[in-house]
Specification:
CATH superfamily: MFS general substrate transporter like domains
Number of helices: 16
Structural class: mainly alpha
CATH class: Mainly Alpha
Oligomer: single chain
CATH architecture: Up-down Bundle
C-alpha cells in the first residue's frame, strides 16, 4: 500500500504539475474556452471510459502488473513531450494521451489497492493512497511555479517533469518485483460466486455521474484565471498546489470517516465541493483561492471515497469489471459536463455556475438512497 503510494506521489508530481498549467498553456497557444473544456472533457472521457476495457482485460487475464506498467509508461511519456508541442492541437493530443495512460493503469492498480486495503479498511487504505497522491500533486505545481518564476517558460516547466516521470517508472518496477501477486495480501475471499453487479451499484453510478458532470476541470478554472486576469500566471500552479494539499489532507480525514460512518459522508462533502464553482468564477484573488481549496477537497472525494465505496458494493471477483464499468460511466458524465461547462463559460458564467451546482445537488438524494440500501443489506 505504502510503496504504491510512493509511486503515486511521483506520478502525481509529474502529471499534476503539468495539469496545473495546461489551461493557460492552451490559452497562450490559441485555444478558446470551449476547446479547453472539450480537450479536458475528452481526456477525462477516454481517461475513464477506456478503464472499462482495462478493467475487463485485467479481470479475464489476472495480469494486473503488465497492464499497470504499460499505462504508467504511456502516461509518464506524454507529460514531458508537452515541452515540444508546437501548437494547441499537439498539446491537446498529448493531454488526452496522458489521460489514456491513466485509464489503462488505474483499474488493475485499484484492484491491487483494494486487496492491500482489506485489512486496514477501504476508506483509510484508499485515503492514505490518495493523500500520498495529492502530496505529490502539491509539490509538482510548486516546482512548476518556481520554474515559471525563474524562467517564465512553460516549455521548460514541462521538460523538468521528465525527472519525476523517470523516478515513477523505476519505483514501479521495484514494486512489481517486491509484490508480484498482490491478490495474496487479501486473506479472506468473500462473495466469489456472485455473478452480477447489484442494483445499488448502478444507482450509485448515477449519483456519482451527476457529481462528475457538475465538477469543473481545473484546466478551465486556470483558463479563467488567465483570461479574466484574476491572478498573475505564476500563482496558477500555486493555487493548484493548495488544492492538492487540501485534497490530500481531506482524503486521510474523510477516508477514515468513511470507514466509520459509510457512504453517508458523501452527502455533506458534495455540498461543500459544489460551492467551489461560484467562488472560483465570481471571486477575486482570495475567494478564488478559497474556491480552489474547496475544489481540491472535492477532487480528493472523487479520487478516494467515491472509488472506495465501490469495493463495498460488489463481489471481490467482480471488482476489476466493476471499477472498469464505474469509471467508464463516470468518465462519460465528466466529458459531457466539461463540454457543457466550457461552452457555458463562453456564453454566461452565471449559467455555468447554475449548471455546476445544480448537477451536484441532484446527486444528494441519490446518495441518501444508496446509504439506506447499504445499511439495509448489512443489517
Amino acid at each position: 500500500m505504502v510503496l504504491i503510494g510512493v509511486v503515486s506521489f511521483f506520478a502525481d508530481f509529474t502529471y499534476e504539475g503539468a495539469r496545473s498549467i495546461t489551461g493557460p498553456y492552451l490559452a497562450i497557444l490559441g485555444a478558446s474556452a470551449t476547446l479547453v473544456g472539450f480537450i479536458a472533457g475528452f481526456g477525462e472521457l477516454l481517461g475513464y471510459g477506456l478503464r472499462l476495457v482495462s478493467g475487463r482485460l485485467s479481470e479475464r487475464t489476472g495480469e494486473f502488473w503488465p497492464i499497470t506498467l504499460f499505462g504508467y509508461v504511456v502516461q509518464m511519456s506524454a507529460v514531458p513531450l508537452l515541452a515540444l508541442a508546437p501548437n494547441w492541437r499537439i498539446a491537446g493530443l498529448l493531454i488526452v494521451v496522458e489521460r489514456i495512460g491513466k485509464a489503462i493503469r488505474n483499474p488493475p492498480r485499484d484492484v491491487m489497492l483494494s486487496h492491500a486495503a482489506k485489512q486496514i479498511g477501504y476508506g483509510w487504505g484508499f485515503g492514505l493512497h490518495e493523500a500520498l497522491d495529492q502530496f505529490g500533486a502539491l509539490f509538482g505545481p510548486l516546482v512548476v511555479a518556481a520554474v515559471l518564476a525563474a524562467r517564465g517558460n512553460y516549455k521548460t516547466a514541462f521538460a523538468i517533469l521528465l525527472v519525476p516521470a523517470i523516478v515513477t517508472l523505476l519505483l514501479l518496477v521495484f514494486a512489481r518485483f517486491s509484490y508480484p501477486k498482490p491478490e495474496d495480501l487479501e486473506v479472506s475471499v468473500s462473495n466469489v460466486e456472485a455473478s452480477g453487479l447489484p442494483p445499488v451499484f448502478w444507482i450509485y453510478l448515477i449519483g456519482a455521474g451527476l457529481v462528475a458532470a457538475g465538477f469543473a476541470d481545473f484546466s478551465l478554472m486556470a483558463y479563467h484565471f488567465e483570461k479574466a486576469s484574476v491572478i498573475p500566471n505564476i500563482w496558477v500552479p500555486v493555487f493548484y498546489s493548495v488544492a492538492m494539499g487540501v485534497s490530500g489532507i481531506g482524503s486521510l480525514l474523510f477516508g477514515h470517516l468513511f470507514d466509520r460512518v459509510g457512504i453517508w459522508i458523501l452527502i455533506p462533502l458534495t455540498v461543500i465541493a459544489a460551492a467551489s464553482a461560484p467562488l472560483v468564477f465570481l471571486g477575486g484573488f482570495w475567494l478564488a483561492l478559497g474556491g480552489s481549496a474547496l475544489w481540491g477537497l472535492g477532487m480528493g472525494v472523487h479520487e478516494s471515497i467515491i472509488p472506495a465505496a465501490v469495493a463495498t458494493m460488489v463481489p471481490q471477483a467482480r471488482r476489476p469489471s466493476a471499477y472498469g464499468i464505474f469509471t467508464a460511466g463516470y468518465g462519460v458524465c465528466w466529458f459531457i459536463g466539461s463540454v457543457i461547462i466550457g461552452r457555458l463559460y463562453d456564453v454566461s458564467v452565471f449559467a455555468l455556475i447554475v449548471f455546476s451546482v445544480l448537477a451536484q445537488m441532484v446527486a444528494i438524494p441519490i446518495f441518501v438512497n444508496v446509504n439506506k440500501r447499504l445499511r439495509t443489506s448489512f443489517n
